């Protein structure tokens, strides 16, 4: 601005000088010129000079205008990109000024701190509409450059950091980043309805702003806890049979082998514990193979009723001494797109649990129905049920409910984890509902295959009982 003012003065002085020279030269060269002629010549000269100066000024002006337009277009594009990135980020971003007012936040931050998402949308571009994007982009750049902090958007002025969170750790991290101009990294926990943990990185952002980025690490922490518990449970599950095997084999070696009264019983127990270890190890390797995607599923249309009947038959032969009654109602025509062996593994695990955690003379009922291209299969029992605290965890690896541990039922605690992964590998979902003392219902979905044609049974749409 100063530069332009200086130029205006310069041009004015130059024009004045030229005019003085011109007048002097004219008077010296033509001392007898009439007043009218002198005025006419002066008017012509001034007109020519004004024309030339205006043309020059206009040229410079349009050059400057083109440059401003080019810069604006670049800024708009950059800001639109930045606003788009902020809007799609899963991490919460909050920019705070030196008065601890929130200058900018994105939608993720709005969700974390329960701020108005519509206001975040005002600051951060949304969707593809160019108009709001330009407005927000300008606000964004102005806020970021700190040029219009007083004229920042309404939403930016409305919130202070303490409105978003009263957590002293977060507030002091921003304060330190603003005062000491150093980046700060810390973990914060927010104990609202669902307990969440965040890794927070706060960094000074030039001028008197600081940016805080909130990474949600709740899920990572949960996985870490599950992993720790898995190894703790694994060593416990392996140690129990191993201790028994060591103790019994030592007893046999130190003489009991010649004791005809006990040696067979000891060997029998040894065999039982070794079998249990073997089952555990094979379940673990099965699970890790499924988890790492090493198992290939051969998806084919499978008649669900036949698969259920086979599983029930196998289970009844293995649990001949059981008094739990198993029944099933599966439409005869219902076919699912599944790997037959894996489908049977899913069904076996669920029905086995339903029998194992049942009461004497209880019952298990298997149902299936088709709904919107999916088969919904349920295994319902009249057993001990699952407590509300165990319910969300039963699908975790090696997790066994307290009741089942104390009842000393056989099993590795891996059955349901295998079921979950197999169902997911088939593109389905598994869920459980249960009432302690009254029984549980495990439900999973599979993709239904095209209807079987040409069977006489397919004519009857009603559910029919499997002889089990
Ligand atoms: N039908 C059921 N009724 C009650 N509890 C169940 C049922 N199915 C599973 N559970 C609970 O879930 C836990 C995990 O099941 P699972 O993974 O199959 O392990 P396992 O059968 O080896 O104990 C069981 O230990 C038990 O506490
Ligand atoms: Mg089981």
Largest sheet: 6 strands, mixed
What does the overall shape look like? Answer: elongated
Structural class: alpha+beta
| Share of residues in strands | 15-25%
Average pLDDT score: 83
Termini separation comes to: 94 Å
What ligand species are in this complex?
adenosine-5'-diphosphate, magnesium ion
Question: Please, could you describe this protein's structure?
Answer:
With 468 residues, the chain is of the alpha+beta class. 53% of the residues lie in helices and 18% in strands. The strands form three sheets. It has a six-stranded mixed β-sheet with strand order 11-12-10-9-7-13. Strands 2-1-5-4-3 form a five-stranded antiparallel β-sheet, sandwiched between helices. Helix 10 runs parallel beside helix 14 (415-425). The longest helix is centred in the first third of the chain and has 54 residues, at 35-88. Residues 349, 353-354, 357, 381, 383-386, 394, 399-401, 404, 411-417, 440 line the site of adenosine-5'-diphosphate.
């Amino acid at each position: 601005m100063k530069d332009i003012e200086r130029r205006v003065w310069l041009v004015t002085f130059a024009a004045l000088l030229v005019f003085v020279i011109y007048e002097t030269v004219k008077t010296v060269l033509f001392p007898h010129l009439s007043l009218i002629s002198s005025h006419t010549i002066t008017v012509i000269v001034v007109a020519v000079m004004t024309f030339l100066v205006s043309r020059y000024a206009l040229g410079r002006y349009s050059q400057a205008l083109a440059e401003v337009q080019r810069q604006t277009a670049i800024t708009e594009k950059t800001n639109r990109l930045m606003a788009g990135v902020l809007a799609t980020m899963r991490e919460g971003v909050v920019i705070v000024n030196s008065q601890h007012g929130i200058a900018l936040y994105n939608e993720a931050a709005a969700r974390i701190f329960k701020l108005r998402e519509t206001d975040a949308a005002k600051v951060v571009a949304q969707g593809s509409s160019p108009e709001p994007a330009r407005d927000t982009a300008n606000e964004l750049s102005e806020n970021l450059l700190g040029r219009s902090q007083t004229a920042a958007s309404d939403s930016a002025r409305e919130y202070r950091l303490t409105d978003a969170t009263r957590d002293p750790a977060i507030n002091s991290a921003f304060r330190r980043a603003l005062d000491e101009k150093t980046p700060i990294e810390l973990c914060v926990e927010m104990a609202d309805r669902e307990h969440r943990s965040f890794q927070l990185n706060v960094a000074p952002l030039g001028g008197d702003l600081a940016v805080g980025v909130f990474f949600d690490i709740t899920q990572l922490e949960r996985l870490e806890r599950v992993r720790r518990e898995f190894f703790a449970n694994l060593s416990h599950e392996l140690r129990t049979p191993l201790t028994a095997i060591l103790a019994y084999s030592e007893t046999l070696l130190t003489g009991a082998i010649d004791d005809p009264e006990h040696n067979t019983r000891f060997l029998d127990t040894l065999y039982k514990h070794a079998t249990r270890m073997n089952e555990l190890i094979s379940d673990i390797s099965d699970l890790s193979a499924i988890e790492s995607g090493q198992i290939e599923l051969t998806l084919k249309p499978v008649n669900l009723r036949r698969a259920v009947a086979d599983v029930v038959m196998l289970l009844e032969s293995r649990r001949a001494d059981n008094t739990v009654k198993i029944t099933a109602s599966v439409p005869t025509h219902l076919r699912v797109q599944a790997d037959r062996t894996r489908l049977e593994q899913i069904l076996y695990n669920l029905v086995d649990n339903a029998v194992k955690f049942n009461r004497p003379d209880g019952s298990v009922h298997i149902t299936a129905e088709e709904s919107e291209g999916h088969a919904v299969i349920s295994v319902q029992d009249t057993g001990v049920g699952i407590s509300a605290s165990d319910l969300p965890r039963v699908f975790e690896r090696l997790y066994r409910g307290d009741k089942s541990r104390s009842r000393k039922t056989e099993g590795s605690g891996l059955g349901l984890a295998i079921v979950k992964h197999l169902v997911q590998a088939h593109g389905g979902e598994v869920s459980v509902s249960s009432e302690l003392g009254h029984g549980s219902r495990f439900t999973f979905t599979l993709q239904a295959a095209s209807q079987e044609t040409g069977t006489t049974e397919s004519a009857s749409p009603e559910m029919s009982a499997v002889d089990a």
